[in-house]
Amino acid sequence: MKDKTIKYEHKANTKEYLIALTSIPRFVRMLESENKPYKKLHDWLVTNEQLFSDDNQEFPSVKQISEWTDIDSGHLSKQIKQMYHDIHILNQNSPQLFVKEGQKMCSLSFDYLGSEAQFNLGLDVIPRVGDSFYFWFIKPINGGTIFHVKNVTHSLDKGDHEIWISLTSHYPNAYMELLKEKAYLHREISFSDLLSNTSSSLEEELVKRHRNL
């Protein structure tokens, strides 16, 4: 029962990268900016965090920041994007830096209309299935900002407690998840189909096959 779905491909603009960077200032502060082309921008963002945290103040444009920092707008756009991607690299290589004292390390998987992104993050409370989760920082990767918890998986590997959280832009449908599990057990869908978002055509087919569930 193979069902092809079209994955959404998000093409972020410079402002989206900037909003993501300034949504969680401590991520920017984590970067080592020495000998980086974005050092001047990095230091300016750290010094002027308050410009982006005041809800009563209009969010600065890229053009304004270019004038304030005396950085050419073309170079500024490249530097903003490089800083963002360097944070992701740091997150992959040193995930412990993204965990505050007392928090639980979680590996988050974000699915927005079939476009996926991953991020390691310390959480104070482990969310439950169905909970909403807002995370602006991930938008440049897959286009999403609001997600719902699809499932939470705990594992114990060599004494280490690992938590994997799968989030989706679709609100979880418990009945449909049950239908998919049954279809998977009967080898009617693949493991990939079981984990991915369900298209409308696959939903209709599953309901027809398992009406009595």
Summary, kept brief:
With 213 residues, this protein is of the alpha+beta class. The chain is built from ten helices and five strands; from the N terminus they run ααααααβββαββααα.
Describe this structure in words.
This protein has 213 residues and is an alpha+beta fold. Among the domains are: 14-97, no CATH class; 174-209, no CATH class. It has helices spanning 14-23, 25-30, 39-47, 50-53, 62-69, 73-93, 139-142, 174-185, 191-195, 200-209; strands at 104-112, 115-123, 132-134, 146-157, 160-168. It has a 5-stranded mixed β-sheet. Strand 1 and strand 2 form a beta hairpin. Helix 1 (14-23) crosses helix 6. The protein is elongated. The model has no long low-confidence stretch (mean pLDDT 87).
